[in-house]
Amino acid sequence: MYFRQAFCKLCKGLGNSAPFRIKTCNSLPNAGKLIVSGENDFGGHTWTKHRLEVFRWALLSGQAAIILGTWSSPSLAEDVSTESSSKNVTSTADFSGFSKIEDGSVISNEHTSKWRIFTDNGRDYFMKGNIEQAEKFFVSALQEAKKGFGERDAHVASACNNLAELYKVQKDFDKAEPLYREAVNILQEYFGINDIRVGAALHNLGQFYHAQRELEQARVCYEIKRRVLGEAHSEYAHTMYFLGSVLFLEGKEKEAEDLIAESIEILEAGGQGETVLCVRRMQYLAQMYSKSKRFAEAEILLKKTLHIVEASKGWKSLDTVVVAERLALTLEAAGRLREAEKLLERCLDARENLVPDEHIQSAADMLYIARVKMLISNQELKSDISQAIAELDKAKKLLHDSIRVAQKLFDRFQKQIGNREPVGVLRKIGKDAQSAAVILLQSLNALGSLEIMKQELLGSREHIAAEAAFRQCISIFREFGSENAISDAHQVKAECLSCLRNLCNLISNGLTSGTGDEKEIKDEIQQIEGELSKAGNA
């Protein structure tokens, strides 16, 4: 009963709403010959292979297919020739492990032929990044599917899905949503609510809502899909994972952890415990455990993951280094500082042999090690002040190196942003610049805190160096400008806010060279707090 109620709730209002209007494309480039591509593992907006976990469905009706992918990876319909059969059969494709569900219905006329050609060409242009031409073909494919197969045929659902994926990539979500919902409705009418093809379409719709952070809608889609599949289905583990991800974002952490843990157990029971897919899920679950301060459980998962990755790739792989860094940070959070320090130093040594000189992640590793040394120094206070100061001096050198590298890289990225580059290249440069900005501000903030610690150990009230570090951090943030995408990033704002608070504390306690700008500092603190609070509630 819940199953049907949830489905009806999901689709409520669609029948009463105005029909989705597709603009007619009167002119199309020459369709060319029919080419069926077996390459589907592409994603994002730069048309490169997606490096995150990929979950796909293949949905076929006669010669129609819907291929459903992750919420961050577009998935398009394939035109797959099938042999006529009187019964539904299930076969496994040779490409990418797609599961195909086929039947013997074959309709051929002028419109269906055009549908196939337009779909192929639309997909080809889509994969090449030519969105404008791809849209023309997909719109025409939808029109021909309706004329050739009928308004409520599964082929129309396939065409709706393709066009929805394209609009999602364009971030034209108002156009994408009704197409996804139309695909679900058509398939539900065509095959019945309990058919796994309906579950597949719901997965796509769920990922769309997931990406928009419409979590309740996404959860309903995933839960219905889970009931459609049943625990015996091979894709059940994937559904558990996606549902767990949504529940985690909704704040239902315990339920989310249990679902993702079950997803991992299913993969392990099926002999997939050492696959990339399972390793990524273990890291994600470890991150959830760390957020809940369940560091012992996070440590077990990360050590298991590190063993798998190290055994297959060794320390000459960045994948091994990344897992080791996560384990080190978990050990740090658990108070196991010497173990964390040793592992981070090994990561830094490994990175220096794997990445170019002065890489941003090397700067991050130096920052992480410096922070651990500052914590160790705090522990040494009770027994050996000279050793505590020595640890701070080592940390200070690391922070200066981190600041130097991050500043140099940030300046370089900022210059590149002004160049004429493809959109995808500029987007990557922008992300790199943001990463460099975060490390730069974090390192300056840590340096200011370190100088305060050292002066307190020496019994001094002079905090000139600490004030200089905090002011440099704030000055860099202000230079970004209010319209700069970097200054608007949550992490960048949060780090600047921390520096502002630290500086304000120094001013309030009379530990700086002057107090003339205390009101300005407090006003800026209030402004950034409001911006971060607003963004968190959005």
The radius of gyration computed from the alpha-carbon positions, rounded to a whole number of angstroms, is: 27 Å
In total, the number of strands is: 4
Helix content range: 55-70%
Average pLDDT, all residues: 76
Q: How would you sum up the global shape?
A: elongated
Q: Which percent range describes the beta-strand content? A: under 5%
Q: Based on helices, strands and strand pairing, what is the structural class?
A: mainly alpha
Q: Could you list some keywords that capture this structure?
A:
disordered N terminus, 538 residues, 67% helix, mainly alpha
Short synopsis of the structure:
With about 550 residues, the chain is mainly alpha-helical.
Question: How are the secondary structure elements laid out?
Answer:
Elements: H1 2-11, E1 57-61, E2 64-68, E3 89-92, E4 99-102, H2 110-128, H3 131-149, H4 154-169, H5 173-191, H6 196-211, H7 215-229, H8 236-249, H9 253-269, H10 276-291, H11 295-313, H12 318-333, H13 337-354, H14 360-380, H15 385-417, H16 423-457, H17 464-480, H18 490-508, H19 518-537
Antiparallel strand pairs: 1-2, 3-4
